[in-house]
């Protein structure tokens, strides 16, 4: 059982539901979301539509989420419209990664700090790191030190740190490929083991499923890489890899696919603690919002978006309370 301060525990309470399960909504996408909105509207990307879209999501969907994750660059106006019972996570990293050197290095938003995130009313800091456990130490040690610094800031400000782990292989181009699917479980589980170490001061891991559903027996569109039983075993192995609370990210799958994955985790006996779900909930709203107007997009969110998030909440009955793993000093 990990020890946390009473102040951190108070924030964790705000971020989770009455059962201690994290049912969070993610709208911290920036560059990719601007591109999708611009493509749907068939016009160049602007700085206004993305803000308005995030505001609409926050207004329509936060009554059904335990917390919301957004970014300080475009998402702060949306935080003012969230439901009063909805907790807030703010992203600390810049969008994307450095393409001028190997290793997919992230960086922090230049005009932000742990203190400023706290002053914006956030209940947690979220930091994303791209991690390939098999890359050279010259690359990975920089990332480990980076997370140590962010963890120290979170600790100094009595905020939980939600660490998002996105895995890849430095020798492969496409993480959606069959080739990567064969090594994904190893990458995800090793990353979780590393950043579960106390030195990082991580409160919650935000992680991928250890397989790509499109290569699992019964769901595969082509090659079958894992039987269903093997996929369930991987979910249990993932659960055993950490003593920290961990939550699943949706990784761009549909709402229906994500619910299938969550139910598989329950079936496997995985001790997961909720979700931080983004595009699976609201992505189809992009086209009506950008092409037909804010009123049409908001109507989609109020109807289908609400249904998506309520279906996901219903699927979380197998999730466990974070209090099973963290206790206030």
TrEMBL record:
Family: Belongs to the aldolase LacD family.
Gene Ontology biological-process entries: 6-sulfoquinovose(1-) catabolic process; D-tagatose 6-phosphate catabolic process; lactose catabolic process via tagatose-6-phosphate
MF annotations from Gene Ontology: 6-deoxy-6-sulfofructose-1-phosphate aldolase activity; tagatose-6-phosphate kinase activity; tagatose-bisphosphate aldolase activity
EC number: 4.1.2.40
Protein's name in the database: Tagatose 1,6-diphosphate aldolase
Organism: Lactobacillus gigeriorum DSM 23908 = CRBIP 24.85
Keyword Lyase in record: yes
Catalytic activity: D-tagatofuranose 1,6-bisphosphate = D-glyceraldehyde 3-phosphate + dihydroxyacetone phosphate
PANTHER family given in the database record: SULFOFRUCTOSEPHOSPHATE ALDOLASE
